[in-house]
């Protein structure tokens, strides 16, 4: 599996990190991106930068959909709808199915998923994986795993 690593020292590094993810999405032909990382690692902040990089209409309002579970940010520059899912509150993949998660994944959408382990079996095999780790010096390490 190919991997891209990136160090995020602060907010100024986010556009370049978002470019790296967008480039990996294009190279892999991936429309689903799963973001792993502990609470407070910066998943939502990175997603906000990615939504902006994708040119979605709602990038200015990108925030965590923790209580709504899904946010719709409108159309990206390529015409596809961009959805952001925070599955933290779900107990199982069955609950994700109840909210129609599979319909979003199967459509012609870009799906950005936090806490993907809650519905792992529903994610397509070509899901792009982004792991964010908070380092002791408060910087972040980002690993982007390209699908096989």
Written description of the protein model:
This protein is of the alpha/beta class and 148 residues long. It has a single domain, classed as P-loop containing nucleotide triphosphate hydrolases (Rossmann fold). The protein is 26% helix and 28% strand. The chain contains 4 helices and 7 strands. The chain has helices at residues 14-28, 43-53, 93-98, 101-106; strands spanning 3-8, 32-36, 70-75, 81-86, 109-114, 128-134, 140-145. A 7-stranded mixed sheet has the order 1-7-6-2-5-4-3. β6 (128-134) and β7 form a beta hairpin. α1 crosses α2 (43-53). The radius of gyration is 14 Å and the shape is globular. The model has no long low-confidence stretch (mean pLDDT 90).
Q: Radius of gyration in whole Å, from Cα?
A: 14 Å
CATH fold descriptor: Rossmann fold
Structural class: alpha/beta
**N- to C-terminal distance:** 5 Å
Average pLDDT level: 90
Beta strands, count: 7
Query: Can you give the helix content as a percent range?
Result: 25-40%
Low-confidence stretches: none
Order of helices and strands: EHEHEEHHEEE
Q: What overall form do the CA principal axes indicate?
A: globular
CATH class: Alpha Beta
Beta-strand content bin: 25-35%
Number of helices: 4
Major beta sheet summary: 7 strands, mixed
